[in-house]
Structures are given as structure tokens and as C-alpha cells.
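Structure ticket #2291
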Amino acid sequence: MSRPVIISCAVTGSGDTTGTSPHVPVTPRQIADDALAAHAAGAAVVHIHVRHPETGAPSRDITLYRDVVNRIRAARTEVILNLTTGIGGRFSPDETDPNRNASPGMARPEDRMNHVLDLRPEICSLDVATMNFGKHAFVNTPDHITRIAEAVRAAGVKPELEVFDLGHIALAKFLYAKGLFADPPYFQLCLGVPWGAPATPESMHVMKSMLPPNANWSAFGVGAQHFPAVAMSVVNGGHVRVGLEDSLYMAKGELATGNAPMVARAARIIRDIGADVATPAQARAILGLT
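Resolution: structure written out below.
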């Protein structure tokens, strides 16, 4: 029997991408509709950020999250919801006072997860990373990670541990050994993000080798490595993530017209390699959500 591979779709993200592609969903209706289309194409999990409906800027507005989640749940599908807790870790030192953030970007752990505790998705992302992230720093201290992890576990939400480099896996394993995460832990290997681990077979292999033996894991590559990372992950025994958060293109110079075509291509890659696309029920069993 071939192995079922979970496809997660990262629907919109928080990057400054809306000016590059007209297909990035922005409003709650657009985000929910694109998430449902991605599910119809084969995604068992949809990873949700929200944006300001008028500006496209990243938002933590719980009313926007509630609108998106209610729309998806109203469709009565089996898709698994994964809400981000990533917004609120961006730091860019002010030129005149390096102790001050040059622009709003940092938030308390409680503010980064209040929508998760209110809406109770089955999964939420949890970044185990402090790193240079493009031109700014992405800050997630062990104390903040612990506070989010303890609260979401008490709420019955499974954290997807997003790791961008080897030290992040080491920290996640340290916290796991202290009993912070329920079995089996679920890791997302985030590859190709400046300045984390590159999206190469060598990076994926060594990161996989560091994971706890019982861990489930998925991977994605940003930009040009988006679809190659799907194949790399499947042949190495992992699950996959695609979506407009991680790449805007189907091929060089060809914008994706939505998330569904990306999911459909990932599904073809999975099947061509000889695996199966996991249903939401299979994904729940694999991830320990049932």
C-alpha cells in the first residue's frame, strides 16, 4: 500500500506580495474561498493568515480570523484548519534608538494566539525561531514559545513546529523533552527563507536526521524551489506544503492564479512518485488529531 502524503496549503501569508500578484487573497471572503478551492484540489490542511482588507497588510484582528474560519466551517468540509501565531515577532531596530522597533511588529505571546484560543482550530503554527529574516529579525524567545505552547495545548490545539535552521530543531527537541509538546510532535521544515537553511537536498536530509524518531514532518521551499521541495520531501518520507505564502509562481514568469493550481500540481507530483494524497481523515490519524 502506498504512503498517504499530507498536503498543507499556506493560503496567503503575511509578506508584501499583494503588489506583485493580483491573485493573493486579501479579504476574508477571498481567503476562505481560496482555502476551500485548495481543499477541493487535494489539500487536507489549510494554513491561515489574515490581512487588512483594504491595505493587504498583515493583521492579528480576531474579527477577520473569525470571519474566515466561520466561512470555511460553514462549507461543512472535512478540511483541517491551521491558524498562524507568527504575526508579532518582527523586529527592526530604530536608527536613533536600537532598543525601539522602527515599525510596529512585536506583540506579546497572548496577543499572538488569542484568535487560536477563541476559535480552536485543530492545528496552529508555532515558530521555534529567532533569526535574520530578510531585512529584519524574527524574534521568538524560549519563554514566549513556551507560553504559547502551554496555552494552545491546554486548548486542545496541536502546534506545527516551524523550524528554519538546525538550532531551531535543537531548541524544539529540548522543549519536547521537557514535555511541552504532545506526541507525536509535528515539524514543518521551512527551507529557502533568507537567512535560514537553503532549500537543498542536503539541508532537508540533515534537518530530518535531527528530528525525534516519532516525529511527523512536512517541508516547503520558497520561490523557485517550491515544487522541487515537494518531490524532495515525498522521497524522504515527509509531507508537503505549497501555497501563495511561499511562492507566487507556477513556473518562471508564470503567476499562479490561486492556491488550487499549486495544490493540484503537488498532488500530481505525489502520485507520480508513487504515493497517495492523504484525505483529511488520514491526516488526522497521522498527526494524532483524532
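Closing remark: Residues 271 and 277 are 7 Å apart (CA to CA).
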